[in-house]
Amino acid sequence: GENVEQHPSTLSVQEGDSAVIKCTYSDSASNYFPWYKQELGKRPQLIIDIRSNVGEKKDQRIAVTLNKTAKHFSLHITETQPEDSAVYFCAASAPRSNDYKLSFGAGTTVTVRA
Amino acid sequence: GAGVSQSPRYKVAKRGQDVALRCDPISGHVSLFWYQQALGQGPEFLTYFQNEAQLDKSGLPSDRFFAERPEGSVSTLKIQRTQQEDSAVYLCASSSDPTSGIYEQYFGPGTRLTVT
User: Residue B1: what pLDDT?
Assistant: First the structure.
């Protein structure tokens, strides 16, 4: 099955700086890669996703990049704000192979220092 | 519109008791997923429904876990003879129609199960 690894496990950044979280996956059939933000005691919230037919996608201060050859994908948050503090999870699935379940990384706890 | 809802939000069960957890997906969403999230970990897949059909139950940890979605809408996850290792947050997610290329999954708030 799919194995997703996520680094770092914790990340502390100064407000206004950038944060980068990296994930690797093992199954070459995976072609859908969402990112979720989870605040303490809350539901995981989909913040951005990317499919294997594109290499980069941006949405305001958030961007995701994908390197299919290396099986890497990354989340970039620019101009971080205190409300960006949360746990972020990367995930992967292979819907083109009719495998819709998400395999998640272990999460990155991001703390934005004011 | 209304998102995915789950009930109860918290459940305490004595070891050996049976529990039933409910999920109400977003109206019209064809696909429904159950995940288990242990403390400090990412969600782990349990089972998947397309309408009323349970197409993948490969993540259910034992035969004490059973899920159903009889009318293709509300789903119930049942755990029989609960054990301490079943303590976790159980998350439900729904997706519009992944077979049509819509892959986004939207999560409910979860049910936190504590087995004492």
Answer: 59
